[in-house]
Write a structure and sequence with these properties.
Helix content: 55-70%
CATH superfamily of the largest domain: MetI-like
Number of strands: 0
Structural class: mainly alpha
Distance between the termini: 45 Å
Number of helices: 14
């Protein structure tokens, strides 16, 4: 009897693979998809043409004052951004001392990138650097007054520096505080449970502007005589407490999603409450709520613009402040400044969003 051999697999139809196959499945699968694809394509082409004309073709790229941007066909006034870029980043920080800010940015980035790469070695040392050494280093470098560094008051800080200081401090403080508040709200001890519940509901029930006003105006009234914090420190405390209340509810949602069997399995192994929480419950809960955590971080990063209310000039605030400069008063100055500020915020928020998706895909092995 002749031996049976299977025929080689035939290649898939060309219309089902590659770009053509992807387009048929995602863009032209139904008549409705075809209409939406055509409408979206026309809109994107039209909007792209308008943006290219404004940002490049009709834009001004060099000049020393407003005359460079006064053209018959108005476009972006990029010389305004170039002239004010240093203040957009550092605020009124002394120009001779901006190397200190650059050094803080560099060490922060050098510590953050390896921390975000899962395969990077020496994670424990990296955590110690970011949570132990770096905050002290950044404080000493930015404020000065030690090791021969010129003192710089926080009232002279501004621009992207203030935005990052407020956002990074709020993010770093809100996650551990939010976890503790979420655990406390689920505690069996009434005092702890009601304290955490009251804290969360109070801070979630008032706007961040109110919290910033309270931190800036009312907080000094509760401090002992001779004890005071500068305005930036009071804002940092207010932002951290406000964001931790929202973070607590995000984490609590993850804790409630853990099946009861996980607690029972931990009890069967003889694990106590803290070991069960640290080794079994929290890792699973935090993995489930990564989108909510990052969403809170993104919201916090954008809410840093509200510090302008209490007299601190973040990136958006310093951009708006320079609109009053008569030497750059043109119809396009405002639009260009807002586009620049929006682009900077978008880059940071988009980076957080993409990293969130990366971590979700990496950690969702049990659901794939």
């Amino acid at each position: 009897m002749a031996e049976w051999t299977p025929k080689p697999a035939r290649p898939a139809p060309a219309s089902t693979v590659g770009f053509v196959g992807w387009a048929r499945r995602n863009l032209f699968a139904t008549p409705g998809d075809v209409a939406l694809t055509l409408f979206g394509s026309v809109f994107i082409i039209w909007l792209g043409g308008v943006l290219i004309d404004w940002a490049f073709i009709n834009a001004s790229f060099s000049g020393d004052d407003r005359t460079a941007c006064l053209k018959p066909v108005q476009g972006a006034c990029w010389p305004f951004i170039d002239a004010k870029l240093g203040q957009f980043i550092y605020g009124r920080y002394p120009e001779a001392e901006t190397w200190r800010v650059n050094l803080v940015f560099f060490f922060g980035l050098a510590g953050l990138v390896p921390m975000l790469v899962p395969s990077a070695p020496f994670k424990s040392a990296n955590i110690f650097f970011l949570l132990g050494f770096y905050p002290v280093f950044a404080f000493v470098m930015l404020t000065g007054g030690m090791f021969g560094l010129v003192p710089v008051e926080t009232t002279d800080w501004g621009g992207l520096l203030v935005t990052l200081v407020v956002a990074v401090t709020g993010i770093a403080a809100s996650l551990p505080l939010g976890i503790l508040l979420a655990l406390g709200r689920r505690s069996k001890l009434p005092i702890i449970r009601y304290f955490c519940l009251g804290f969360i509901e109070i801070f979630r029930g008032v706007p961040l502007i109110t919290v910033l006003f309270m931190a800036s105006v009312m907080l000094p009234l509760f401090l002992p005589d001779g004890v005071n914090f500068d305005k930036l420190m009071r804002c940092l405390i207010g932002v951290a407490l406000f964001s931790s209340a929202y973070m607590a509810e995000v984490v609590r949602g993850g804790l409630q999603a853990i099946p009861k069997g996980q607690y029972e399995a931990a009890a069967a192994l003889g694990l106590g409450y803290w070991k069960t929480t640290r080794l079994i419950i929290l890792p699973q809960a935090l993995k489930l709520v990564i989108p909510g955590i990052v969403n809170t971080f993104i919201g916090l990063f954008k809410d840093t613009t509200l510090v302008l209310i209490v007299g601190l000039f973040d990136l958006l605030g310093i951009v708006q402040f320079h609109f009053t400069d008569a030497s750059w008063a043109t119809p396009e100055t405002h639009i260009t400044g807002y586009v620049f500020a929006g682009a900077v915020f978008w880059v940071f928020c988009f980076a957080m969003s993409r990293y969130s998706i990366f971590m979700e895909n990496r950690l969702s092995t049990d659901r794939q």
